[in-house]
Here is the input.
Amino acid sequence: PPECEAYVWYAPSTDQVVIHDPQVSAKSYHSNNPAHGPQNAKLFTTKTATQYGGWSADSNSLGQWIQMDFGQPLTVSGIVTQGREDVKQWVTKYHVQVAVDENCVVFEYLEDQGSTLEFEANIDQNSLVENWVDNVVTRCVRIWPTSWRGGISMRFDIMACVEPVTTTSTSSSS
Here is the structure.
């Protein structure tokens, strides 16, 4: 079973890190209009007078990404996604990168036997789709949409916790 099942942005439990909107960023957002910005990518976001129902990339092309910076290393066990609430747009597949340094400059794709993992995402606007990963400790997670319906738009969260992954280590003394 996954080690960490709590959503860190939408409904963090009291013992978890709380993610604030500025910790979520994206390569772009539609027309540089903050109403389409990454802060609207939180699960269950709905359209209001000042925002649309999710993050929408400025270009519906490969190379777009959205990222969450936890501010400290967390154990990540999964990603959950939703489509855009107010328009029939959603991501259907994506790749995931995790930072391998403490400043979120160097990223690596999650892989299985040398091949980049491609995660199945949404088939509609509002269903939640959870994808589990082998527990990975990282400060930043970046989602790269690879396929979409209508446009690159999404809402998401990361399932993570502060507890370190249990590892077996050996030490020797001389």
Notes: The chain is about 0% helix and 40% strand. The two ends are 38 Å apart (CA to CA). The beta strands are 24-26, 55-56, 66-82, 90-99, 107-109, 111-112, 115-116, 119-120, 129-149, 153-161. Confidence is low (pLDDT under 50) at residues 165-174.
